[in-house]
């Protein structure tokens, strides 16, 4: 069961490692990202950023879906991370047990950021990511923006009303 699927363009960093892992109290983190799964330097960096005592799995998006759907892990709470909305949509369409999707930090470092739509101070989406986000909201999973637990949850559907 995925306690939270977080979309964060930096994957594991201070907010994730120090705040969210404690808040969600999961035994580990699953990074679902094709680049990270196939790049030894990125893997090493993510491992270094993982809090002591937490397990880390780094898988391609397709392999992560297999992990999430494995009956052996059915009762295990997992904190999942992707760095883009399209990967989160693929996971959400193929995994049944997701408590919520936190669209936290996306698009701020994209090369085409000047062509993106800004939904909040931490969300800047290009046309493809915006379309994927609209599809994500249509699923029966809570989709929200919450950078850190002390922030209020903002429903993504309310942010999308400003761009439609």
Automatic annotation (TrEMBL):
Q: Where are the transmembrane segments?
A: none
Assigned GO CC terms: cytoplasm
Supply the alphabetized keyword list.
Cytoplasm, Kinase, Phosphotransferase system, Sugar transport, Transferase, Transport
For the keyword Nucleotide-binding, the answer is: no
The name this protein carries in UniProt is PTS system mannose/fructose/N-acetylgalactosamine-transporter subunit IIB
Q: Please tell me whether the keyword Cytoplasm is annotated for this protein.
A: yes
Task: Give the UniProt record's GO annotations in the biological process aspect.
Answer: phosphoenolpyruvate-dependent sugar phosphotransferase system
Q: Name its cellular compartments.
A: Cytoplasm
Q: Where does the PTS EIIB type-4 domain lie?
A: 1-164
> InterPro entries in the record, alphabetically?
PTS_IIB_sorbose-sp, PTS_IIB_sorbose-sp_sf
Tell me, in one coarse class, where this protein mainly resides. cytoplasm
What are the protein's GO molecular function terms? kinase activity; protein-N(PI)-phosphohistidine-sugar phosphotransferase activity
């Amino acid at each position: 069961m995925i306690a939270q699927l977080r979309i964060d363009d930096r994957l594991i960093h201070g907010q994730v490692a120090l705040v969210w892992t404690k808040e969600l109290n999961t035994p580990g983190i699953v990074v679902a990202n094709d680049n990270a799964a196939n790049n030894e330097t990125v893997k090493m960096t993510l491992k270094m950023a993982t809090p002591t005592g937490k397990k880390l799995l780094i898988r391609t998006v397709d392999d992560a879906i297999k992990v999430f759907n494995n009956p052996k892990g059915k009762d295990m709470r997992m904190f999942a991370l992707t760095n883009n909305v399209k990967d989160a949509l693929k996971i959400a369409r193929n995994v049944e047990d997701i408590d919520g999707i936190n669209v936290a930090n996306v698009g701020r470092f994209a090369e085409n950021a000047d062509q993106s739509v800004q939904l909040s101070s931490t969300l800047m989406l290009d046309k493809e990511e915006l379309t994927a986000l609209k599809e994500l909201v249509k699923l029966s999973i809570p989709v929200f923006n919450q950078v850190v637990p002390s922030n209020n949850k903002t429903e993504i559907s309310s942010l999308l009303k400003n761009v439609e």
